[in-house]
Amino acid sequence: MTTGSVVLIDPQSYISQQIQKLVIENINFFCVESTADAKNLLSRQPCSVGLVILDPSLKDSLEEVESLVVATSKTEWIALVAPAFMEMAHVRSFVANAFYDYHTLPVDLQRLLMTIGHACGIAHLRLSLAKSKKENADPGHFGIHGNSAIMQTFFQRLDKVINADLAVLIGGETGTGKELVAQAIHGHSRRSKGPFVAVNCGAVPQNLIQSELFGHERGAFTGAQQRKIGSIEAANGGVLFLDEIGDLPLNLQANLLRVLQERTITRLGSTQPVPVDFRIIAATHVDLQQAIQNGSFREDLYYRLSVIQLDLPPLRSRDGDVPLLAEVIFKRLSANNPHCRANGFTSQALRVMSTYRWPGNVRELINRIHRAVILCEGKLIGVSDLGLDAYVDIPEAKTLEDARASLDRSILEISLRNNGNNVSRAARQLGVSRVTFYRMMNKHNIAATH
Question: Where in the numbering of this chain does the Sigma-54 factor interaction domain appear (predicted)?
Fold first, then answer.
């Protein structure tokens, strides 16, 4: 991208001729008459800055201008507004939320050129930052992100589990990402080309769960109009993921145990066994040992399922991971929402997210950011966009010092990651000396890799 390229939408050539007469070092101007022309130009020639005149001569509706501004997020837009237009509340709101800056008509060209220069600088800075983030982005571990010590330990165990082809029992609170782990195991194992079949044992009505798992023959019961292949048979050659295994009725626990022992299934209404070859991964948010004591879960099935156990930590235990996860989730959700105006989070939002307890874990984090991506009207997602206003002044760590330490550590780790673990660049980004940065790393037990 040429950081000094500027596009001007000027239907009546109101200021085009004046601007083109000016000789401005390193800035090239492109003048067009409509948003459609601008969109066509920007598809061929990206520009750092865009100018659009908002007055009665405008050929396009404000909605069309907004659509262009939203679709060209890498361009910093400046509005040149007729005074009468600025009297309208909806225009003021539009300008405030969608534009880098604005000038009223008639414009002072020298002041406008200063604004253009500043906007070019911001565009260049954003481009450099985006490039740095792309080069040093955390690729995740099989699509699972986390830099905390507890997640690094989890990843080490996960690496050993993937190709073992043994039964896996994943424990963890609701919303921690148990199905994502199961998908990672499937996707990177020797069974990756086989099917991944997921069944939530707690979501299927008890009168249907047997048919769901084992299938049935035509006429096996009232309403069975045709043969149904069950989930176990459908997983042949791949992975069967049984979520909320603790909710499986006792009689079906016995049936599942038999399948795991004999490696055959018998459809409801049939006497013919069908051989099956699959890897089973089960997940639960309840204590199955306690369920065994209560008589609601079979001990022999438990031992069949828990050959390897993985325990996903709750988000509140993943020290420093929230800012990283928030960034990853925001990028994914905003990329799928062309109307998203935000390009990040306010420092207050990051601080509150880092100290909030996240009872719904990663699922709650995803839902709150999804809501913010849809509702946020500014450039940065704030606390209110996340629905966390009530937690602004409530420190959730054990002490205020703990909360500060956690936030400081997160800032250091993010700065290092965005600068390729180069301490000198990270220190410059934060405006501190290398000595101070190293001292802070030592204080927060962050290892130097360069």
Answer: 144-374
The DSSP symbol for 361 reads: H
367, 373, 375, 379 alpha-carbon torsion, rounded to 10°: 140
Question: What's the first-to-final CA gap in the chain, in angstroms?
Answer: 31
Give the three-state DSSP class for 252. helix
Mean pLDDT for the stretch of residues 117-127? 84
pLDDT at 2: 42
- Written as six digits, the tokens of 419 are 């600068």
Q: For residue 445, what are the contacts with CB-CB under 8 A and spacing of at least 6?
A: none
Amino acid at 320: G
C-alpha distances (whole Å) from 314 to each of 171, 182, 424, 449 are: 10, 17, 34, 28
Q: Which CATH superfamily is domain 2-135 in?
A: Response regulator (3.40.50.2300)
- Tokens 């009872």, located at residue: 359
On the question of a cis peptide bond just before residue 205, with omega within 30 degrees of 0, the verdict is: no
Do 149-311 and 2-135 have the same topology in CATH? yes
pLDDT in tens, 351-409: 999 999 999 999 999 999 999 999 998 888 999 999 998 887 644 445 556 656 766 77
Task: Please state which of the four CATH numbers 3.20.20.70, 1.10.8.60, 1.10.4160.10, 3.30.499.10 is assigned to the domain occupying 317-443.
Answer: 1.10.8.60
Alpha carbon separation from 57 to 15, 50, 53, 277 (Å, rounded): 13, 18, 8, 70
Three-state secondary structure call for residue 321: helix
Instruction: Give, in order, the Cα–Cα distances in Å from 388 to each of 179, 353, 369, 385, 404.
Output: 27, 8, 11, 8, 19
Parallel, antiparallel or unpaired: strands 196-200 and 308-311? unpaired
Strand order, beta sheet including 101-104: 28-32, 2-9, 47-54, 76-81, 101-104
Asked if 61 contacts 54 with a C-beta cutoff of 8 angstroms, the reply is: no
pLDDT tens string 250-286: 999 999 999 999 999 999 888 899 999 999 999 999 9
**Cα separation, 117 vs 121, whole angstroms:** 6
* Fold (CATH) for 149-311: Rossmann fold (3.40.50)
